[in-house]
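ingest -> validate -> predict -> emit
validate: passed (alphabet ok, no gaps, 273 aa)
predict: started
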Amino acid sequence: MVSLRKLSVSLVMLALGVTVLIPFIWMISSSFKIQADLFKYPIHWIPQNPILSNYEEVWGGKYKFALFYWNSAKITFFTVVGSIITSSLAGFAFAKLNFKGRDFIFLMYLATMIIPAQVLLVPRFILFDRVGLVNTHWAVILPGIFTVFGTFLMRQFFSTIPSELLEAAKVDGAGFFRIYWQICLPLTKPAIVTLLILTFTWHWNEYENPLIFLRSSELFTLPIGLSSFVDEYGANYSLIMAASVSALLPLIIVVAIFQRFFVEGIASSGLKG
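emit:
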């Protein structure tokens, strides 16, 4: 009976997985087809005459796709590195340092998660405009470096580290930063990878902030560039599919590399259902 139930659940999950993958398979297949073969029925999931000209047009044509790619990579890199540094430091402080009002400050910090991000766009734009950050990549990078969720995630993971380990390090003469850097941080690899994947995915696909704060086309990120690409090549779905596959590839690579640590990090930080 138990085996039958497991088999049924596995079949249902398999069917759901295939359903989710079908659009991506069609997108990849279409990127290697000419426009005339795109909507033929029945669908040829494996292109009969695969071509690479769509990718050549996307990357080597008049469209500045490579520049948008580079802008997204630069913004995402600095945001991911910055968020890991600030979140791990703040998470360590809230989890392992005893100071007055620690729990209240952390609660108030968490409470800011209920504030919609759109509410802060106008005051943030005014602030960045006055300090000269509008139409620069820093206007997109700086807000992403400080993340409440990242601090919460790291704090949950640091809380699982035995306090006796830290006390032993103090006895040996280690300071707080040395304890953080040499003892605690190496033990939080799953949490760091989890934060890396979530932050990378979010900011690689971010559309709203670049749309508001970036004005020059030379500064556009990939989501903004893809939107412009669709406007310019609206009828050429083969080129759009090739551009979309190119944009999706870094996400697939990052998740594939760090998937094991990601699952472990979610489980260990108390975020699983």
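The CA atoms of residues 53 and 270 lie 47 Å apart.
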